[in-house]
Amino acid sequence: MSANVSESSGTGDASSSSTTLDPLSSSSPVRLPAVRLACCLPTVAMVSSQLLPATSSLGDLPRDALVEILLRIPAKDLCRLRAVCPSWRALTSSPLFVAEHKSRHTAPLLVVAYRDQDIANGVDVVDLSGNIVKRIPSIESDIVVEDESGHVFAVFPVSHDSISVLRTRLDRICFTRELYPLGLWVLNPATGVTLVLPQCHSEELAHDDEIRANYGRGQVESCALGQVSSTGEYKVIRIATIGDRQLCEVITLDGAYCGKWRGKQSPPALVFASRGEHMRCAVVDGVVYFLMDFYTNYFSTGVLTIEPGSIASFNLETEEWMGTLQGPGPVRTFVEDHENFCYAHLNLQLSLAELDFSLVTVHNNHNISMDLWFLTDFENAIWEKKYYFLPPIAHLGVHPFLVLHDGRILFSHAGGLLKSYDPKTGTYADALEVRDSRSIGIYTGSLLSL
Questions:
Q1: From what superkingdom does this record's organism come (predicted)?
Q2: Band of the pLDDT at 147, cuts 50, 70, 90?
Q3: Could you say which DSSP state residue 68 is in?
Q4: Between the CA of residue 203 and those of 27, 222, 314, 320, 437, what are the distances in Å?
Q5: What span, in angstroms and rounded, lies between the C-alpha atoms of 314 and 12?
Q6: At residue 51, does pLDDT exceed 70?
Q7: How far is Cα 319 from Cα 264, in angstroms, rounded to an integer?
Q8: pLDDT tens digits, residue range 176-204?
Q9: SS3 (DSSP) at 135
Q10: Is 269 helix (H, G, I), strand (E, B) or coil?
Q11: Which residue among 33, 58, 282, 420 is least packed, with the fewest CB closer than 10 Å?
Q12: Mean pLDDT on 329-354
């Protein structure tokens, strides 16, 4: 296997070079020097001064040293240490401490849907070793639908319903349900609160005759949850199809409440569906990118009206479309440059991803090669091919998912696996087995908040 990779700069985990002190251990106590640690930075001093009284100490251990030691301990062990005393629990539960600890321990947590034998659905937060950090069952009262008159009523789960998690990178989780094509739910794992987003359309669209005639029979072609950087607001955008039209609506989430859908201008052209195995939508820094559908019109008319690889971008802050972004040059001319391929092939090969906080166009020429094109300049549509892979990575149903701090890349497989590729060694190995690799997100919140 060969791969062209860019140099990746990892960030060290402080816990990997320090000794974990367990005050619950029955072994002889370790005597610590009565001096301040050299690594007690201003941040540590600020945390300790705000959270511990000036006289707080552990024997001869100064307060700054105590905070520094606790910040070095992995979150899973730190949760156990909260039982030592009330002051430790208060310290390690404070937002200031949690934020500082999160900045030091950057190993990602994953979000996957689960389903048990009693047909109950829910969401698991897991680490990269597959350990379940927290299981959040779906509450039956969260499964609601709204009729045309605005009446809301609960629906009990059934055996053929299931949850599908959107591919997000946030401290919120957005998921859909198989039996409710217009339904969206947003979960805050830290509080356990699930917002049920309205299934009805916005007021701007509700009076449309075609929408009224097709009430409840629409299909969400694509949806995404993102956060506005300047305000911290969470917003959801959905692109729904009614007849041959695509409608755009946005809703703002506010803590434990959500507003109403607001009708927005339709996409500049048809966008590809991003449901199920089609990864054709990505969110980067408050902008939602949709891969535009170049194939449907070409298939029916034989005329190519949209350039292959083109991307529609929607700004969640301004709630406006930002125009059409050209895809990488070799993607646009792929069919012209390769006489053995047609637009039907290219239609199956393209997807979008968010990797290393960049928009990535994935050109997966199944069983031949996979190119990862990183957007480096939005205004001038400049793309850089940072990775080139051969089979078995270049295979149907394989999608890049996450770049780890050590440079490894996680790929999701249609068979329910996450695999990792290490560019330093050229090895490709199983990383984690999940129920549905298409239904998985990244949780950026702290384990200490769960």
A1: Eukaryota
A2: low
A3: H
A4: 67, 20, 21, 18, 36
A5: 35
A6: no
A7: 8
A8: 887 777 788 999 998 888 888 888 888 87
A9: strand
A10: coil
A11: 33
A12: 95
Nearest to 293 by CA among 277, 280, 275, 279: 280
The two three-digit tokens of residue 120, written as one number: 């109950």
pLDDT at 52: 54
pLDDT in tens, 110-129: 999 887 766 677 889 998 88
Q: What is the rounded average pLDDT of the residues 3-24?
A: 36
Contact of 124 with 131, CB cutoff 8 Å: no
Distance, CA of 148 to CA of 43 (rounded, Å): 54
DSSP element (H, E) containing 43: helix 42-51
Residue count (the chain): 450
The pLDDT of residue 409 is 96
| Three-class DSSP category at 87 | helix
Where are the alpha helices (H) located in 73-208, listed in sequence order? 75-81, 86-93, 95-104, 203-206
The type of residue at 432 is L
CA 441, CA 279: separation in Å to the nearest integer?
12
Q: Is 224 within 8 Å of 237 (Cβ atoms)?
A: yes
Q: Is 210 helix (H, G, I), strand (E, B) or coil?
A: helix
> What are the respective helix, strand and coil percentages of the chain, to the nearest 5?
20, 35, 45
Residue that has been written with the tokens 């980067």 in this structure: 284
pLDDT at 372 over 80: yes
Q: Which residues are CB-neighbours of 322 under 8 A, at least 6 positions away?
A: 287, 313, 314, 315
The CA-atom distances, in angstroms, between 251 and each of 113, 201, 233, 262 are: 24, 11, 10, 6
Q: What is the DSSP letter of 162?
A: -
| Max CA separation in the chain (angstroms) | 81
- How far is residue 414's CA from residue 444's CA, in Å, rounded to a whole number? 24
Q: What per-residue string of b and e applies to 226-251 under the rule 16 or more CB within 10 Å gives b?
A: bbbeeeeebbbbbbbbbeeebbbbbb
Contact at 8 Å (CB) between 158 and 119? yes
Given a contact cutoff of 8 angstroms between Cβ atoms, the answer to whether 297 and 307 are in contact is no
> From CA 176, how far away is CA 113, in angstroms rounded?
10
* Two structure tokens written together for 382: 């400049």
String of DSSP letters for 292-360: B--HHHHHHHS---S-TT-EEEEETTTTEEEEEEP--HHHHTHHHH-TT--HHHHHHHEEEEEETTEEE
